[in-house]
Backbone:
């Protein structure tokens, strides 16, 4: 049981350090593993640009179809715009498919390189190191923590870059269409940033507690399995069960707290996006009545606004991925 106490202490100290500093050094070291795949990253960036342009083409085609054919009642040529819209959807699918496929490929290759580096490092360590560090903990480093980084490379860094590119393109398109409507839509952005900031603060605390309780339950489980013979010899099964139940209950509470914060944050972002749409309809409707705006432009602008908030939601949800990756990279390095 002394071994379990030592393990719990080590895990606790390690997890308490999590999140004290957003480790730019760790992120810089992680990015180094992407350097051998610079060409693949360039190809991914090209597909991202294609995906963004395909998404922006849809609202433009709809605006032209409404203003030039549907409102005037000119059905001739409307089928051409329908075909162009279909082509934009097909183009978006193709670009998005290859973008996602390339991302996953790069992520898997980076995981292979990391595992190989860790295994080579383990082979160079002294025998005393393995006497001081449990096998289960080392297995977690080589397999578990590396697998967590897979999500960072496939759904974190590269995808976040694509989301930022989409936001930039949509902002430019909204400003070109109608800068007054764009300013009206952007009035809800402070609400989003405020909600995201509060969510990050509270979810960070919940995440740290979750990782700490996970480490404790993992260490307790490992020690009990290793010492099962001794435990049965002294008839400690019931006591061990109660102690595990307590750790399991705390881990459940930490997970539920994290779920609670996310269940508030995500609907709040959805409501804010709907609020932006309502404001656009209110202001744009008034502009249409005054003949200062076309109906097609308003419809296209609403679609652009929906596409604007989608990558913002994606970026907000990437926070947990980055936190998991920072914790795992801290332990790996």
Residues:
């Amino acid at each position: 049981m002394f071994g379990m106490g030592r393990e719990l202490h080590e895990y606790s100290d390690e997890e308490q350090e999590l999140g004290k500093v957003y480790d730019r050094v760790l992120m810089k070291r992680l990015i180094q593993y992407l350097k051998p795949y610079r060409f693949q990253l360039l190809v991914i960036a090209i597909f991202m640009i294609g995906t963004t342009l395909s998404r922006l083409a849809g609202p433009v085609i709809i605006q032209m179809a409404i203003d030039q054919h549907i409102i005037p009642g000119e059905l001739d040529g409307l089928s051409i715009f329908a075909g162009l819209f279909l082509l934009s959807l097909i183009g978006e699918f193709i670009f998005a498919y290859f973008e996602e496929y390339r991302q996953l490929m790069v992520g898997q290759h980076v995981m292979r390189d990391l595992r190989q580096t860790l295994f080579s490092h383990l082979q160079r360590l002294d025998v005393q190191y393995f006497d001081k560090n449990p096998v289960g903990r080392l297995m977690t480093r080589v397999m578990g923590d590396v697998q967590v980084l897979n999500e960072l490379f496939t759904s974190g860094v590269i995808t976040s870059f694509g989301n930022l590119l989409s936001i930039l393109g949509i902002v430019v398109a909204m400003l070109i269409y109608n800068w007054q409507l764009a300013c009206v839509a952007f009035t809800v952005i402070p609400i989003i940033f405020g909600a995201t900031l509060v969510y990050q603060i509270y979810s960070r605390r919940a995440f740290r507690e979750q990782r700490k309780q996970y480490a404790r339950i993992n260490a307790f489980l490992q020690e009990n399995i290793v010492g099962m013979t001794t435990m049965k010899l002294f008839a400690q099964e019931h006591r061990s069960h109660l102690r595990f139940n307590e750790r399991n209950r705390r881990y459940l509470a930490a997970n539920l707290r994290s779920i609670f914060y996310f269940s508030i944050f995500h609907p709040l972002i959805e409501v804010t996006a709907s609020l932006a749409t309502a404001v656009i309809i209110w202001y744009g409707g008034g502009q249409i009545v005054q003949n200062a705006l076309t109906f097609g432009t308003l419809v296209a602008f609403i679609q652009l606004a929906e596409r604007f908030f989608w990558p913002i939601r994606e970026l907000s949800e990437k926070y947990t991925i980055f936190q998991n990756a920072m914790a795992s990279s801290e332990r790996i390095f």
Summary: The two ends are 29 Å apart (CA to CA). The chain has a mean pLDDT of 80. The longest helix spans residues 237-289.
